[in-house]
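Our consortium's second objective concerns turning raw sequence data into structural hypotheses that experimental partners can test. To show how far this objective has progressed, the report includes one record in full. It was chosen at random from the queue rather than selected for favorable results. The single chain below, 111 residues long, was entered without modification.
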Amino acid sequence: MARRNREKEIDSSASEMESPFNAPVEIPPQDSLDLHPFLPKDIPSVVEEYLRQCQLEKLTEVRLIHGKGIGVQREIVRSLLSKHPAVQSFHNAPVEAGSWGATIVVLKRKS
């Protein structure tokens, strides 16, 4: 019983972990962004800011690397992309660029 309670404490403390970043992290816009270093709860804000910066830099196609796994990060990313006003379209990356572990995003040109 004590072991089960200890495991429960470890699980709950892990889910309550704070982000290791105390301030916004600037990421220079490139044509791809690896989302592996970010916590799932931070993905929406990271992707939003990344897309905003890419549009300012006039990038029209970018790759978001979310990994294959069980699809949690992919679903977070694609849900956001489906509603994002700067996104024209998105699809799986080609095999050599990550296949279904990455998403290619076509951005609208900013006028």
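The partners drew two points from this record. The CA atoms of residues 38 and 97 lie 20 Å apart. The first helix runs from residue 2 to 15. Both points have been shared with the crystallography group to help prioritize constructs.
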